[in-house]
Design brief:
Elements lengths: L6 H8 L13 E7 L2 E7 L14 E3 L14 H10 L3 E6 L12 H8 L1
Parallel strand pairs: 3-4
Antiparallel strand pairs: 1-2, 2-4
């Protein structure tokens, strides 16, 4: 017996995910540590301010408490200003991000930021 999806389920599947009220970002999601497995999102300035998709100057934005990437209403403005200066904006996801808040220490966060 195969159950057919309801009309509501079909509508939900075809709907795009909601956009962040803080803006839309283009960049690269990359793993910067394998143990523990940690990722970060980097948005590069448009050419000619980056050389082969590598930017030497980076601004690192770390949200507070349980935040991850795009933590504040001014994140898009910060990205724009970084790009105007030829810098990239990097937003790491630490072990203490999201539900990890309260299960670590500042020492561990510092090590993960490295």
């Amino acid at each position: 017996f195969t159950e057919r999806p309801s009309a509501q389920h079909r509508r939900m599947k075809s709907s795009p995910p909601p956009l962040s009220p803080y803006g839309v970002f283009t960049g690269t999601l990359f793993q910067y540590s394998s143990s523990p497995s940690l990722i970060a999102f980097e948005s590069l300035p448009p050419p000619p301010n980056n050389d082969d998709n590598i930017c030497k100057n980076k601004c690192i934005l770390i949200g507070g408490l349980s935040d991850g990437p795009i933590p504040t209403p001014y994140t898009k403005l910060l990205e724009t200003e970084c790009h105007n200066l030829g810098w990239s904006l990097v937003q790491p996801v630490l072990s203490s991000s999201y539900l990890g808040f309260g299960h670590g220490s500042l020492a561990r966060d510092s090590t993960e930021i490295g």
